[in-house]
Design goal:
It is built from 10 helices and 12 strands. By secondary structure, it is an alpha/beta fold. The protein has one domain: TIM Barrel (Alpha-Beta Barrel). An 8-stranded parallel sheet has the order 2-1-12-11-8-5-4-3, with helices on both faces. Strands 6-7 form a two-stranded antiparallel sheet. It is globular, with a radius of gyration of 19 Å. The chain starts with 13 loop residues before the first helix and ends with a helix.
């Protein structure tokens, strides 16, 4: 029986999109320099804190770029202590498949889905971020086949809690030349995340975008702890000292290269309360003080932050307020960054 799908239109291929929105010869050295810095952080040559920070979901270009301009000014002040990679997440995973699914689906959050224009909007936004602020950014690899639209622009990729068990995500991550953060699954089993890291660090031969491809393995694949959900629907954190000790032991028992973890300060780690994110960071910093092995393992933090506190429904009129998960506003964000820089001084 044939598939019961309605095919709307053929989408632009990555090469066509890159030719229309190219990384110029003036911008390419910025991408390369920031990629070298990230390699140095994960390979232990650069001891600065990595801060992946920005909106839960990049919903509109003007507010995201306003946020990045403010972030750039702060980055200049804390550059000796912190290396900032902004979150410009253009895909929004949905537990039930309902709700706003990100810029790549809906370039106009109040309009109808339009993946053709969404691909163009995402490429354009990441390119403007690079050109106007000097930032290469992070995105979530919700759809592995879409990575080619941004592979010459991105600094960092996450594989989400719902995707980390998926074979195609793991194999695609093994062919990326940038750090890939593997989140623990929503049920919290760290062995699943460690298996994903193991797979991503190995060579593979597989099918990708209609091609038979070979990957070299990605030594920069690493853990992201984001807490877990209980069977009753509650949340439990996994950023505490004991959780970090357990992760260190799992790494020690593995043959993973460049053991590392990024702490996701929101989601289940904050009990879905974005205003607890600074508290999570303080707790992890105390664990780093207590234990040198944990200090080497924890490379940084993943923080949800935007111009305004909280969140609103899609189509809301508050400029710079999240339309997905609630975020820290700018004043609290500045304070968080300066406090973090003081710790790493």
């Amino acid at each position: 029986m044939k598939m019961d799908l309605e095919f709307e239109r053929k989408l632009t291929i990555p090469l066509e999109t890159k030719q229309r929105f190219p990384v110029t010869s003036e911008l390419a050295p910025i991408v390369e320099e920031r990629a070298r810095t990230l390699r140095d952080i994960f390979e232990g040559r650069d001891r600065r804190c990595l801060l992946l920070i920005g909106p839960c979901s990049a919903d509109r270009a003007d507010s995201v770029l306003t946020y990045l301009e403010r972030l750039r000014r702060v980055q200049e002040e804390v550059r000796a202590q912190i290396f900032i990679v902004p979150r410009v997440f253009s895909n929004k995973p949905r537990t039930t498949g309902e709700g706003y699914m990100g810029l790549v689906h809906q370039p106009d959050a109040a309009g109808r889905p339009d993946p053709f224009q969404g691909i163009i909007a995402v490429r354009s936004l990441h390119l403007r971020a690079l050109r106007e602020t000097g930032f290469t950014c992070a995105d979530e690899m919700l759809y592995p086949e879409n990575h080619r639209y941004l592979d010459d622009l991105l600094a960092y990729v996450t594989v989400g809690a719902r995707s980390v068990e998926d074979q195609q995500h793991r194999l695609t991550a093994s062919g990326l030349g940038i750090p890939v953060g593997m989140k623990n699954p929503t049920h919290g089993d760290l062995r699943v995340m460690m298996n994903a890291i193991h797979a991503a660090q190995r060579k593979h031969s597989f099918i990708y975008r209609g091609w038979a491809v070979h990957s070299p393995g990605n030594p920069l694949a690493h853990a992201v702890l984001r807490g877990r959900q209980t069977e009753a629907g509650g949340t439990l954190p996994n950023y505490q000292y004991e959780s970090l000790q357990r992760l260190a032991a799992l790494y020690l028992a593995s043959d993973a290269r460049n053991p590392a973890v990024i702490i996701d300060t929101n989601h289940a780690n904050s009990g879905k309360d974005p205003f607890r994110q600074p508290e999570v960071i303080r707790d992890v910093l105390e664990s780093r003080r207590r234990d040198g092995e944990i200090a080497q393992l924890v490379k940084g933090f993943l923080v949800e932050s935007y111009l305004e506190d909280g969140c609103q429904r899609p189509g809301g009129t508050v400029f710079g307020q999240s339309i997905t998960d609630a975020c820290l506003g700018w004043e609290k964000t500045e304070r968080l960054i300066y406090d973090l820089a003081e710790h790493f001084s």
